[in-house]
Specification:
The protein has 280 residues and is an alpha/beta fold. It is built from 10 helices and 7 strands. Strand 2, helix 2 and strand 3 form a beta-alpha-beta unit. The radius of gyration is 22 Å and the shape is elongated. 25% of the residues are buried.
Amino acid sequence: MKTGADIPPGLILVHGNRAEDLRELLMAWVGRHPLAPLEYETVLVQSNGIAQWLKLSMAADGSEGGCGVAAGWVFSLPSRFVWQVYRAVLGRQAVPEISPLDKSRLVWRLMRLLPGLMAEPLYAPLAHFLGEQPDLRKVFQLAERLADLFDQYQVYRADWLEAWDRHQDVLLDARGGAAPLAGEDRWQPDLWRRIQADVLGNESGDVTGAGGRAGVHGAFLARARATPSEHRPPGLPRRVMVFGISSLPRQSLEVLEALSRWAQVLICVPNPCEHYWADI
């Protein structure tokens, strides 16, 4: 059995078509390669239900494949963990604990901005939804939907937001092609720029997060490439395990790849096939 000092960094990817087999592999790996005493294991999961299932499996009796106790485990959703990695690498002063463009905050920012925009012709599609005399419930519903939309853009279509920041109202495809936005959708880039201006005008201090996840992610990748692999930033775990998540956005995958320079990253991917996909 290796000691906590013998955890080499790197990226390990394991596929399995049975979640129970992946669970047994994860627990066996932890048992054979334990971290140091009082050091926490970090596991990324897609739901609290999966986290609870792993805890119960770890706490099961040894005859059932468990360890008899489940302690020192930290379970997190990928997006929350990724933001913590940003803060650890870029510095807590540069990246706020919660992004000003986080979905929970964006709802209330939009609640304040939307009523003053409805008279503009560009926002006619939104004004039609709200009606002539919108009540606060409708404004909140719209703000909630738009906050979710821009939150998804930050994670999955950061390239669109970067183009909109440059006043290029286009949609980019995977090959780098650009298609102009339809007239009824041109309010989206304009609203994004107004949100950015509102954040910069109301936040104080050095807020790298004012550009949302896209801006922070770019700064993180640049810093990660410039930091030697032997200098692990304080606050980062020495091992991260990803369990039961079949798909991740590109940003999260790039963070895990960069993190593998300093930490051991074990990804257990459910694969609903009994055969090797590359043989198809």
